[in-house]
From TrEMBL:
It comes from the Bacteria. This is UPF0056 membrane protein. The lineage of its organism: Bacteria, Pseudomonadati, Pseudomonadota, Gammaproteobacteria, Thiotrichales. The keyword Transmembrane helix applies. PANTHER family: UPF0056 MEMBRANE PROTEIN YHCE. Keywords: Cell membrane, Membrane, Transmembrane, Transmembrane helix.
Length: 202
């Protein structure tokens, strides 16, 4: 149970559901409630397809181009760490992606599904947390279910976006993003150390 909770928290930090709320509000500002709900469901569905695809095929793609997963784990950990630093010290997720939304077509695909929900960090995490040599099929299914659980949280928050944003405000979303960034940074360092250990054990 504790491992499932840790996996859920990990993907919660990477995907950052609360940080998605201001982005959703911005890109759906001129739509009716019915259209907003449709966009929320579509964005969640597309994000789920992307992340589950990388759970299933991510490692196969790496093997096809002869990249050891340990090297990908180290690179992924470094990228996740840099991503976490931008959440902590730089512009938070809502601030950064609201700028994208201002110049983009108001669609569920961009910037909602990508890069807000199925972010590069989330894609890397999906591959690293389902490595065939480290996790059996049952554990990979559990990880996939935790990803879907986080996406369910994303969907619920988008459906309740107006109320949530009124409650926490832009400042609250920014604070949550930075806290999630700290958690993600620690997990990224752990991934790098594990990757280095695996690489030199080969």
């Amino acid at each position: 149970m504790s491992e499932l909770l840790a996996t859920f928290i990990f993907f919660f930090a990477v995907i950052d559901p609360i940080g998605t709320v201001p982005v959703f509000i911005s890109v759906t500002n001129h739509y009716e409630e019915k259209v907003k709900r449709k966009i929320a469901f579509q964005a969640t569905f597309v994000s789920a397809l992307i992340l589950i695809f990388f759970v299933v095929a991510g490692e196969l793609v790496l093997n096809a181009i002869n990249i050891p997963l340990s090297a990908f784990q180290i690179a992924g950990g470094i990228i996740l760490f840099l991503f976490a630093l931008t959440m902590i010290f730089g512009e938070s997720k809502p601030e950064e992606e609201l700028k994208m939304a201002g110049n983009a077509n108001e669609t569920a695909i961009f910037p909602l599904a990508v890069p807000s929900i199925a972010s590069p960090g989330a894609i890397l995490a999906a591959v690293l947390m389902t490595e065939n040599n480290r996790y059996n099929l049952f554990e990979q299914v559990q990880t996939s279910l935790m990803i879907l659980a986080v996406l369910l949280v994303v969907l619920v928050l988008m459906l309740l976006a107006t109320w949530v944003h009124r409650f926490i405000g832009n400042g609250g979303a920014s604070i949550v993003s930075r806290v999630m960034g700290m958690i993600l940074a620690a997990m990224a360092v752990s991934n790098v150390l594990a990757g280095i250990k695996d690489y030199f054990a080969i």
